[in-house]
Design a protein that fits this description.
Layout (H helix, E strand, L loop, with lengths): L2 E10 L1 E2 L2 E8 L6 E4 L2 E3 L6 H13 L1 E16 L9 E16 L9 E8 L8 E2 H12 L15 E2 L1
Parallel strand pairs: 1-7, 9-10
Antiparallel strand pairs: 1-5, 2-3, 3-4, 3-8, 6-7
Amino acid sequence: MSTSFRLAAYAVCIERGRVLLARYVSPATGDTQWTLPGGRVEHAEDPFDTVIRELAEETGCTGVVERLLGVDSRVIPAAEARLGVEHQNVGVFYRVRVTGGTLRPEPNGETAESVWTPLPEVAGLRRSSLVDVGLALARTLPATGHVAAIPVGGRIRH
């Protein structure tokens, strides 16, 4: 069976009752969904550095890591995965404080826009499960750095 694996780091930026979300646009299908700023850890890169690099690339903002929130590991069945093979995503989630910059689309990238979104509005968005994982980690700060699996379906996607 073919599989794929990805290690990624995600920024949970919350201030004044809002969370910074990025609108991802699939280059293959044009489908969109909201997600957290973040992305793949490059070879020999520390996830701690990845999250700040990805925040800048995707949103135009600079930031500093305030704390590690936790790690999420999920397996996406082949039928639901973009690549058509079973995919495991391991995400390292950090609480990040935005320190500067101006929100803008990602140049030559897959992030069409980034928006400070009021927390009560998140539930109504078509979004990645990563958003719910990151917000649950930020809200509960579990000592283990792990939250229960977020059900996928309806407005929540892999």
